[in-house]
């Protein structure tokens, strides 16, 4: 065997050799943690992974609020007829999924325990990345953010797209493994593996909370 057939050894030839620093000013970004993922009958719904992740997301939100780490939320909303502001993604590729984010649809309300406070920022988007076409970069710069802690739904879609853009905008992305959900464990785990190798640091909820608490104590 050349060493390229084994996954870990293959990637080890190229990726995963270095670690992003956890900076002095972290912000928690909760990505698309909406009710549809947890509601039977909604196309987004899957019964296990999303609920497990929701519980971790809630703990992350509560812990960050308690120690003074800013929490920012992102969500999708289509407010034009037939989702025209969602372009071809809405019109051709995923209309039966993305219409759950139409303005007024209860599926796009935040999931239980994931509701933002009136003082917290909600970024509205139309595409996968929380950065694309939004004011999120300016918001994070205004908060002095150097490390973006990411969690939410779905791991292979909006979380991964946001993490990639976080890196490209100059923030150090950290992903909370327990607080991300996808439709299938294989897809979820493969996406986390790929993000860890190339774009971010993927850590457990306990590890991330320890870093955040250490960060808060330095203030």
From TrEMBL:
The keyword Cytoplasm does not apply. Signal peptide: none annotated. The keyword Hydrolase applies. Pfam families: Isochorismatase. SUPFAM superfamilies: Isochorismatase-like hydrolases (SSF52499). InterPro entries: Isochorismatase-like_dom, Isochorismatase-like_hydrls, Isochorismatase-like_sf. Keywords: Hydrolase. It comes from the Eukaryota. Transmembrane segments: none annotated. This is Isochorismatase-like domain-containing protein. It comes from Sporothrix eucalyptigena.
């Amino acid at each position: 065997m050349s060493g390229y057939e084994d996954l870990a050894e293959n990637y080890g030839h190229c990726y995963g050799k270095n670690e992003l620093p956890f900076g002095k000013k972290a912000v928690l970004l909760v990505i698309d943690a909406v009710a549809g993922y947890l509601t039977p009958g909604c196309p987004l719904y899957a019964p296990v992974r999303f609920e497990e992740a929701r519980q971790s997301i809630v703990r992350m939100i509560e812990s960050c609020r308690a120690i003074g780490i800013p929490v920012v939320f992102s969500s999708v909303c289509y407010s034009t007829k037939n989702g025209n502001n969602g372009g071809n993604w809405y019109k051709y590729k995923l209309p039966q999924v993305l219409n759950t984010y139409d303005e007024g649809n209860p599926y796009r309300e935040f999931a239980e325990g994931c509701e933002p406070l009136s003082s917290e920022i909600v970024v509205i988007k139309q595409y996968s990345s929380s950065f694309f076409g939004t004011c999120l970069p300016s918001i994070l710069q205004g908060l002095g953010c150097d490390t973006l802690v990411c969690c939410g739904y779905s791991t292979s879609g909006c979380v991964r797209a946001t993490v990639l853009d976080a890196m490209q905008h100059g923030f150090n992305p950290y992903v909370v493994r327990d607080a991300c959900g996808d439709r299938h464990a294989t897809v979820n785990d493969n996406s986390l593996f790929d993000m860890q190798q190339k774009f971010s640091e993927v850590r457990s909820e306990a590890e991330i909370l320890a870093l955040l608490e250490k960060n808060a104590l330095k203030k």
